[in-house]
């Protein structure tokens, strides 16, 4: 399957670089996220795969894909799509591979061109962003996912019990998440490639697409449980790295992580 996956990755990169529609870009990124899960437990296989694929204007496809993925993550919609991409980012971060630290991606917005009435003025004053290392950006995105979850918890006396329920991961799910992987470690097969290919047709709602998604173990993940479990394990195994990465996060992002680790 190795050569087929290399050809697939090359085609996906070319299509991603030419895609103009946001929903199509999200679907393409979903497939890359699925490839991350397929590479577990050797996530470096995914990284090396994309490092061997060219991407116009970038050192290699891994740099390009992670730059686009981290920019697009907040725009990805759909429960299944969010689960696949969020857990894949967690898998990448938990790998602590040095290749991640070599990449800088778009960080926080420091000046917006919003409100400018003409295209010519917008070109003179485009949006400006900070730049941050990839691991820090991934942590920020995972923190944002936590914030969204915490905002759904009522701010009353039941808050503690709600979070206790979120943290009450049953034994099967705990074993399932033990390696911060959402998929089996077997080699990718045609059924997995079929799931990825069907990502292009998610909006069609046909029975085959729905069946493929339902059969995917990632669809069974409880994302709040997963994120709580991930941050607890990452703090234990990579405490120094976590302490370093949180320094430049926003106050809200740091607070979200602390809310998990202090329980």
Automatic annotation (TrEMBL):
Residues covered by the Importin-7/11-like TPR repeats domain: 10-227
GO CC terms in record: cytosol; nuclear envelope
GO biological process: protein import into nucleus
Signal peptide range: none
Record InterPro entries: ARM-like (IPR011989), ARM-type_fold (IPR016024), TPR_IPO7/11-like (IPR058669)
PANTHER family per UniProt: IMPORTIN-7, 8, 11 (PTHR10997), IMPORTIN-9 (PTHR10997:SF9)
Entry protein name: Importin-7/11-like TPR repeats domain-containing protein
Species lineage: Eukaryota, Viridiplantae, Streptophyta, Embryophyta, Tracheophyta
């Amino acid at each position: 399957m190795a050569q087929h996956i290399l050809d697939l990755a090359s085609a996906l990169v070319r299509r991603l670089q030419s895609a103009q529609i946001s929903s199509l870009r999200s679907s393409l990124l979903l497939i890359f996220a699925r490839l991350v899960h397929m590479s577990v437990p050797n996530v470096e296989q995914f990284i090396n795969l994309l490092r061997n694929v060219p991407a116009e204007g970038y050192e290699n496809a891994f740099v390009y894909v992670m730059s686009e993925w981290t920019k697009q993550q907040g725009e990805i919609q759909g429960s299944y799509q969010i689960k696949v991409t969020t857990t894949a980012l967690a898998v990448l971060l938990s790998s602590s591979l040095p290749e991640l630290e070599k990449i800088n991606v778009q960080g926080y917005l420091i000046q917006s061109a919003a409100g400018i009435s003409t295209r010519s003025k917008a070109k003179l004053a485009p949006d400006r962003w900070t730049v941050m290392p990839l691991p820090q950006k991934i942590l920020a995105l995972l923190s944002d996912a936590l914030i969204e979850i915490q905002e759904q918890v009522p701010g009353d006396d039941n808050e503690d019990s709600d979070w206790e329920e979120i943290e009450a991961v049953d034994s099967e799910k705990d074993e399932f998440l033990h390696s911060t992987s959402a998929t089996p470690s077997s080699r990718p097969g045609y059924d997995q490639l079929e799931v990825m290919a069907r990502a292009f047709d998610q909006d069609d709602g046909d029975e085959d697409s729905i069946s493929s998604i339902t059969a995917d173990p990632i669809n069974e993940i409880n994302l709040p449980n997963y994120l709580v479990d991930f941050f607890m394990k990452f703090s234990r195994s990579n405490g120094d790295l976590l302490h370093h990465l949180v320094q430049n996060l926003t106050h809200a992002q740091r607070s979200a992580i602390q809310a998990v680790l202090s329980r």
